[in-house]
Amino acid sequence: MSERGLILVNTGNGKGKTTAALGVVLRAVGQGLKVLILQFIKSGNGYGELEGLKRLGDAVTIKSMGKGFIYHKRDEVSPEELEKHKTAAQEAWQTLVDEVNSDKWDLIVMDEINNAINYDLISVDEVAHMLRNKPKRLHLILTGRYAKPEIIDLADTVTEMNVVKHAYQDGIKAAKGIEY
Ligand code: ATP
Ligand code: MG
Q1: How much is the mean pLDDT over the chain?
Q2: Half-sphere exposure at residue 56, Cβ-oriented, CA atoms within 13 angstroms
Q3: CB 60 within 8 A of CB 29
Q4: Which of 10, 11, 13, 15 to mutate to test the pocket of ligand 1 (most atoms within 8 A of CB)?
């Protein structure tokens, strides 16, 4: 009998949501699991972790499907911009659903998916439906701030990263190899 796959959520305002997920990826690869990382939001250029993951060879597949979408206030984004990101997120979502249902993977990381839900780029109901109907043995990790209660309800393990301090608050720029 195969083990039941778990749903993990890494959320909160503190640093470490994506990198903790990648720690699990490293562990999973060591146990011979096949891993897919699907990035919403991020566009996939200039990230040290992606270069590092490539060194793991065939054990990890990465699909970066975002358009670098990060904003704080909705009215700072033009309708055209928003439409572009919506289209990208919908494509990422369709890819994700197909990959989940393919039953090819042991672990899928959905990086920044919580943000995509929060910006209304993808529907929380559809994500919840996918979580309920995923292949039994598949492990999933969802990252990003402000995880919705519907998602938290369906998860087995939820961790909230809390900021005690962040170098950024001292005006220190994102450090190569630490932040990206
Ligand atoms: P990481 O990728 O380092 O695990 P994360 O996934 O928890 O971080 P995100 O919200 O995805 O955090 O933001 C990614 C970038 O923002 C990273 O460069 C991260 O260091 C930085 N960051 C995370 N939390 C904070 C914070 N509280 N203040 C400023 N920058 C932050
Ligand atoms: Mg992150």
Answers
A1: 92
A2: 24
A3: yes
A4: 15
Distance 19 CA to ligand 1 centre (A): 9
Q: Which of 21, 31, 5 is closest to 100 using CA atoms?
A: 5
* CA of residue 175 to ligand 2 center, whole Å: 15
pLDDT, tens only, 15-66? 999 999 999 999 999 999 999 999 988 777 889 999 999 999 999 999 998 7
User: Distance between CA atoms of 95 and 87, rounded to whole angstroms?
Assistant: 12
Q: For the chain, how big is the Rg over CA atoms in Å?
A: 16
Q: Retrieve residue 71's tokens.
A: 């904003």
pLDDT digits (tens, 9 = 90+) for 97-133: 999 999 999 999 999 999 999 999 999 999 999 999 9
Which residues are in the CB-under-5-Å shell of ion ligand 2?
A: 17-18
**Do 176 and 46 touch, CB atoms closer than 8 A?**
no
CA of residue 135 to ligand 1 center, whole Å: 30
* Pocket, ligand 1, Cβ cutoff 6 A: 13-19, 143, 145, 161, 163, 166, 168, 174, 179-180
Residue type, 134: K
Domain 7-161 has what CATH class? alpha beta
